[in-house]
Every structure is written in C-alpha cells, then in structure tokens.
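Notebook entry, structure prediction.
Reason for the run: the old model in the group folder had no record of what sequence produced it. Starting over properly, with the input documented here first.
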Amino acid sequence: MGTQQVSAPPCAPSPESEGSTPSSGVIHVHVRHTAAFTVVGNHLTQHRTLSLLAIGLAVHIQSLPDGARISIRHLAARFPESEARIAVGLRELEATGYLRRSRVRLADGRIVTRTVSYDRPGAEAPTVSIPRPRTGRQNAPVSPAAPPVSTPLPPPPVASPAPVVHRSAPETSPAPAPLPAALPAPTARTAPPPPLPQPQDADPELRRSASALLADLRRLAPQLTLSERDIEALTPGVVTWLERDAHPDTVRQALTTDLPVPLKHPAKLLRHRITALLPPPLPGAQDLAPPQRPGSIVIPLQNCDLCDRAFRSRHPGHCRDCRTGIHIAA
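New structure, fully documented this time:
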C-alpha cells in the first residue's frame, strides 16, 4: 500500500487554471504579420462617436496606397453599401479629423477633389515641394547601376564619357507630373454689376406698394425672406416696374419663378432679376396720357324774386316754378 506507482502519469494541468484564457468574451489568436498589413490606432478602431461604417471606411482608406481612388462612386462599387451611406460615413470622418477633402486645380486647368487621410487627427500633413526642371548635376537622378555615392571611385580619363551614358537613361522616362496647386479662393467679379433701375418720379404711394410687394414674397417662397435693409435697397427697382405699368402679379411671377435650389443669396438674385427682366416702357405712353381735367365750374345760388326759393343760376331772377307760372298767366 505504501509503494509509489512511478509508472502512472501525472495529472495534466487544466487550461482554465493557468489564467491565460478568459472565461468569457472574445479570445484573440495573434499572428505576426510580415507583409501586406496596416497599422491602425485604437483611437480609431475603438472610437466612441464614430459609426461602425465610418470606422470601416477609415481602416479601408488607410490600407490603400497613395493615389488610390476613394470617391463615393468607387467606394460604392467596392462595397455593398449605397452611395448615400458612404457619403454619411465620409462626412463623419471629416468631422472627427480623420479625413480632409478639398478642391484643387490641376496644371491642365481641371478641378478635382483632393482627399487626405490622417492616421491620427491633428497630425500635420507632410510638405511636398513641387518638382522643378532639373538643371545641373545636383538635380540629376542617379541610376541604380551607378556606383554608390558614399564610396565614389575616380574614373580613368579614358572612361570619362561612361557616366554620361548611364545618367542619360532616366531622361527617357516621363517626368513626374507637378503637384496640383491649391484652388484659389473665389474672388469678386471683374466687372461691377449693372445698377439697379431708378424711378423717374418718387411717388410715395408707389414706394409703399413696392415695399409691400417685396415683403410679401416670403408668402409665395419662404426662401425669399428679406431683411428691412434689403427691401429698402430693392424698392426703387420695383417702383420702376410699376411706373412702366407692370401689374404686381407680373412682378411677383418674374421674381419667384424657377428659383435655384439651394438659394444662398435671395437679395442678390432679386436684384439681378429686377435689373435683367425690366420691361421697356409702353410705346407712346406719354402721348396716350389722358388730358388734364379742367377745374370744376360751380354755379352760384340765387334767390327767386317771387317765392324767395334758392336756385342755381348765373344771373338773378325767378326759379323754374315761378317762370312756368308767369308763362301760363301770360
């Protein structure tokens, strides 16, 4: 009974007793990557506010090489999500600083969208200088077959043209295209806009009607809500329309038809339409003007000599009844 059984194998330790494997949750199987991998920070993969779609788009974009196409159309063709969902995800990345999109002008005049992806928001983009024409030996590229720069060997006098042959080989390859220049900020127009039409007669009644018409445009089109300053500035132009016998409904239709979407500057649009669509004066409007009415003639009152009744006449005498009685008596 006290003899030890040396042939019995010892009990194998339980995997759960070692403490390396969690009892619940995800279990990672790590493999060391040696090629075709991307380093992504946990600040992105475990972001608190980004959606899962935006995190996936950011990881996919960071895994692509420089120059890869990542427009909404290309991403929608690559993944099953729609263009609308991909556009929402890209806007989330722009809002958090992982992506920046800007419009730039290329050397040939085309305008494209330049997208910059940031591994960490707030990182400074590398400054890349635009390549210039190569002049001199210091800018000439060194071919792979050339000797290392660190240990140059003095060539013999006879073989001096040899390096020229090796250095001229890269010249046959196309020169790298210059980097696109940043799109300049929009500048003001070169020519000033045409002046707003001015009325010939400053009629207060027409000014009140024009001001009320402009203020009432927001009932027909809410995007045409104007400030008091804009209404005061546009009133002379509408007064000019009304002076040329334009009906108020005609003015409203000209100012509210086919509005652009979205409308960013309603006052500028109305100023352009008031100036560009101004109708000409009616032909012969001055000749057809009604003649001036003469002053009204007032006939004075007279008292009848017989009955003292009042009647209108230019000369004193008898009223109508008394004149009739006189003729009958005669």
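Summary: The longest strand covers residues 99-105.
The old model has been moved to the deprecated folder.
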